[in-house]
Amino acid sequence: MIEPELAFADLNDDMACATAYLQYVVKHILENCKEDMDFFNTWVEKGIIDRLNDVVEKNFVHLSYSDAVELLLGSNKKFEFPVKWGLDLQSEHERYITEVAFGGRPVIIRDYPKEIKAFYMRQNDDGKTVAAMDLLVPRVGELIGGSQREERLDHLEARLDEQNLNKDSYWWYLDLRRYGSVPHAGFGLGFERLVQFATGIDNIRDAIPFPRVPGSAEF
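Structure (tokenized):
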């Protein structure tokens, strides 16, 4: 995982950083790995170079979670997993949004229901959602997940209570807020997913540098 954390940042800063990071990486690949990309374009995924160029050149779509649910419900497509406000989006939903609804453009979905997100994500003023975001790309679905962190001690304690988490176990985390904090945000990017997206490889297991198989974790 690639996990930057930004001080004095809100969700908008977080989304801007995630966008700039992905565009920088893709642009670097296109400019410095032409021979490799020609190989992938010929033998793995036809049109992958055009797809990556779109990431660099086109604006990302921004969508709230509520709007994403409405879009899926209005698609009349039969999904394996149900679509309902309050349920997390599955990979099939994410891929439909980015591949079909928006023609292959990356999509950032924001403001998820607080019940399906971690306690440390900052609660929005509506009391129902949190300042969280997921960046979706074709073929993969979620590539980046991030949020603005909750810097208000009283809100953080309330969220721990709501999720029936033992506050004594999080004393050190609460102390970070109790003795001074600043607005901050961050995200995590799955490196193997990035490799899968950039190369057109179908199965993520082929993008993992060290094989992981059942029974192989000896320590």
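The two ends are 21 Å apart (CA to CA). The chain has a mean pLDDT of 95.
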